[in-house]
């Protein structure tokens, strides 16, 4: 099974050069505008969210006050677990609804890759990071934990996937909460965006995104509990990062480029730089990392190397994607299934708002026969990246 990034080394892991390209240092781990720092400025040794034992050192209050804080944190943890379990159920139901609706339109999607990712037993983890970087300091500032995971299927065969734990998502305290002295955090759902991105890729017949599921993930023996819990398990892609391939834009197949550009427009991609594209061993372009897509307003600029190059070449919409978009707009059942997927990922109100924004983009795309580059340029909503840039 071809599972995100590079070619395995002699131990079965991707080579060091490829792994470094997706380390926190290069900025390819869902850089968030909402990053968290602990009350004492450092995480627990096991990576969990609070170090209650260091409250005195941080200037906090010991004794009953510390116990009360810990009790509230435990209560929050229970609430988060209940919410996660509910979300997993809703995502599974939405995924089935999407597959059923696609079959009704004549499509025959195959969920085999998703099933493998959902059922694989964790065997070993290897954190993606660059050598010589203080991973803990870097993570506290701006990066998520991202792991290569060896999983084992029911027949005992091992395969590689990418694991993004919910606990590893980086975020700041909310500005308002920080000013008021509260410790509330904005809920982070970037791991769910990986799953939602694959659902949209399937609906629009793009074929450029790695399969992704969200599941409970038991940390393998010897691994810290901090990596367990819930997270996205994402298909591993064999190939080479576009960022590390000189002149990749000029060499890219027009059809492949159009597929990725169309996907980036439909999902509202704001982080589609060269480092988020893989040139597969089969020369196909694969786009990963939806952590900065699906925003809840139109107050953003598209950032997409593929969109930029497609515009410069004057490429039209990919015919498969355009046809799928028109089928989507003609199918009430498929629209309802897609809306359920958004609501499962973000909650009813927030999910519906994000779905409506995606739906409006799909209507514009289908009506105009492609991405409305003229309007995006007129309104300044297409951010220039430049060749082989990843910031």
Explain briefly what this protein structure is:
With 391 residues, the chain is an alpha+beta fold. The protein has 13 helices and 8 strands.
What does this structure look like?
With 391 residues, the chain is an alpha+beta fold. It has one domain (16-34, 61-378). Helices cover 42% and strands 11% of the residues. The protein has 13 helices and eight strands. The longest helix is centred in the first third of the chain and has 41 residues, at 64-104. It starts with 15 loop residues before the first helix and ends in a 13-residue tail after the last helix.
Keywords:
three-stranded antiparallel sheet; disordered C terminus; 391 residues; disordered N terminus; alpha+beta
Report the count of strand segments.
Answer: 8
Radius of gyration: 21 Å
Secondary structure tally, helices: 13
Helix fraction, binned, reads 40-55%
Number of domains in the coordinates? Answer: 1
Main beta sheet: 5 strands, antiparallel
Unreliably modeled segments: 1-5, 19-59, 171-185, 387-391
Q: Decide which structural class fits the backbone.
A: alpha+beta
Reading side by side through the largest sheet, how are the strands ordered? Answer: 1-2-3-5-4
The global form is globular
- Which range does the strand content fall in? 5-15%
The pLDDT mean sits at: 80
The span between the termini is 31 Å
What kind of oligomer do you see? single chain
Tell me the series of helices and strands, N- to C-terminal: HHHEHEEHHEEEHHEEHHHHH
């Amino acid at each position: 099974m071809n599972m995100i990034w590079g070619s395995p080394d002699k131990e079965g892991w991707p080579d060091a050069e490829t792994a470094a390209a997706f380390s926190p240092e290069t900025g390819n781990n869902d850089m968030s505008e909402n990053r968290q720092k602990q009350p004492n400025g450092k995480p627990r040794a096991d990576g969990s969210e609070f170090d209650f034992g260091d409250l005195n050192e941080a200037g906090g209050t010991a004794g009953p006050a510390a116990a009360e804080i810990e009790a509230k944190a435990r209560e929050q943890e229970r609430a988060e677990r209940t919410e996660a379990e509910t979300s997993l159920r809703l995502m599974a139901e939405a995924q089935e609804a999407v597959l059923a609706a696609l079959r009704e339109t004549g499509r025959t999607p195959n969920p085999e890759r998703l099933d493998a990712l959902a059922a694989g037993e964790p065997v070993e983890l290897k954190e993606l990071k660059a050598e010589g970087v203080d991973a803990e300091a870097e993570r506290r500032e701006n990066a998520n934990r991202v792991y290569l995971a060896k999983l084992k299927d029911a027949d005992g065969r091992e395969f590689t996937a990418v694991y993004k734990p919910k606990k590893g998502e980086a975020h700041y305290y909310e500005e308002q909460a920080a000013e008021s002295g509260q410790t509330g955090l904005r809920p982070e759902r970037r791991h769910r965006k990986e799953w939602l991105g694959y659902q949209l890729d399937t609906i629009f017949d793009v074929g450029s995104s790695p399969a992704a599921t969200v599941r409970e993930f038991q940390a393998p023996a010897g691994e810290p509990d901090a990596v367990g819990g819930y997270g996205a398990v994402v298909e591993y892609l064999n190939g080479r990062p576009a960022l590390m391939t000189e002149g990749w834009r000029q060499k890219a197949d027009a059809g492949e480029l159009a597929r990725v550009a169309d996907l980036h427009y439909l999902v509202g991609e704001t982080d589609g730089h060269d480092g988020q594209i893989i040139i597969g061993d089969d020369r196909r372009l694969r786009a990963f990392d939806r952590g900065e897509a699906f925003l809840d307003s139109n107050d953003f600029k598209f950032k997409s190397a593929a969109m930029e190059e497609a515009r410069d070449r004057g490429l039209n919409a990919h015919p498969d994607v355009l046809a799928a978009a028109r089928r989507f707009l003609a199918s009430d059942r498929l629209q309802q299934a897609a809306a359920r997927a958004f609501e499962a990922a973000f909650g009813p109100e927030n999910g519906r708002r994000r779905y409506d924004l995606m739906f409006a983009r799909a209507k514009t795309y289908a009506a105009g026969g492609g991405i409305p580059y003229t309007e995006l340029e007129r309104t300044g909503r297409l951010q220039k990246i430049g060749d082989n840039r990843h910031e």
